[in-house]
Amino acid sequence: MEETFADVNPSYPTNSSFQTPTPRKGTEKDVESLKKTFSNLGYKVLTYHDLDHGEILNKALEISRMDHTMTSCLCFAILTHGDKGGQLFASDRPYQFSDVTKMLENGDKSLVNKPKLFFIQACRGGDMDDGRTVQLDADDDLTFHVPSHADFFTMYSSVEGYAAFRTALGSFLIQELCQAIDKYHDTLDVLHIATAVNRRVAYEYSTYTPSNKVTHNKKQMPEVRYTLTKLLKF
């Protein structure tokens, strides 16, 4: 069995750390694309909307304590507002992405050696990228002592300090990610798929807001970090 968990937060009340939140228009398109892509791959899809901080931590704790013996891979898609330093926003307050991963690092022993993938569609700051123009299996009796940080994969929608973009049709990252998985899941591993997504977003996408020069014609560069210990195909 394969599972993917989607934590979706499209809108927020006003709070002290995020005084003027705006609805995340287009995020419902990302949710639809994620559900379709991962359902077609045979994943069990669970969706959570507008969770507050306590609910997010409780859900992460619940997942970390589950018996995942029959699970081959866990995927998490987090669609929310964000800021520098790994900060993400629940419906009531900010929290650290590491708060979630730490629970999985110290979770049930059945999580050991299981790939845990995160796809995060959120800003990592407010800087804008103007861009630049250039020419162009094993023995069952064998045991291992494995680091708790092993077998994580995180794909961020932008590099640290920079904004991520979204339209009414969905976000740059999630739409390209789903299309790439749909197209390449039979032939490429997740790292090669991520590289293809990086290139598409970097080369094919720019913002289009001619009435607002501050945000017009800006670029976005996704970033991948991983501690996978084996190649992974969906």
Q: Can I get a quick summary?
A:
This protein is an alpha/beta fold and 234 residues long.
Structure in words:
- With about 230 residues, the chain is an alpha/beta fold.
- It has one domain: 3-Layer(aba) Sandwich (Rossmann fold), CATH 3.40.50.
- Helices cover about 25% and strands about 20% of the residues.
- The chain has helices spanning about 25-40, 55-65, 95-105, 170-185, 190-205, and strands at about 1-10, 45-50, 75-80, 80-85, 85-90, 95, 115-120, 150-155, 165, 170, 225.
- A hairpin with a 3-residue loop joins strand 4 and strand 5.
- Helix 1 (about 25-40) packs parallel to helix 4 (about 170-185) and helix 2 packs parallel to helix 3.
- The radius of gyration is 18 Å and the shape is globular.
- The two termini are about 10 Å apart.
- Mean pLDDT is about 85; it is low at about 10-15 and about 135-140.
Q: What key attributes describe this structure?
A:
20% strand; six-stranded mixed beta sheet; 5 helices; single chain; three-stranded antiparallel beta sheet; globular; alpha/beta; Rossmann fold; 234 residues
Helical/strand content category: alpha/beta
Report the CATH C-level class: Alpha Beta
Total number of distinct structural domains: 1
Mass-distribution shape:
globular
The number of strands is 11
Strand order of the largest sheet: 2-1-3-7-8-11
Distance between the termini: 12 Å
Q: What would the CATH topology be?
A: Rossmann fold
SSE order, as H and E?
EHEHEEEEHEEEEHHE
Average pLDDT rating: 85
The number of helices is 5
The second-level CATH architecture is 3-Layer(aba) Sandwich
Beta fraction: 15-25%
| Low-pLDDT stretches | 10-17, 136-140
Helix content: 25-40%
Radius of gyration: 18 Å
Q: Strand count, sense and closure of the main sheet?
A: 6 strands, mixed
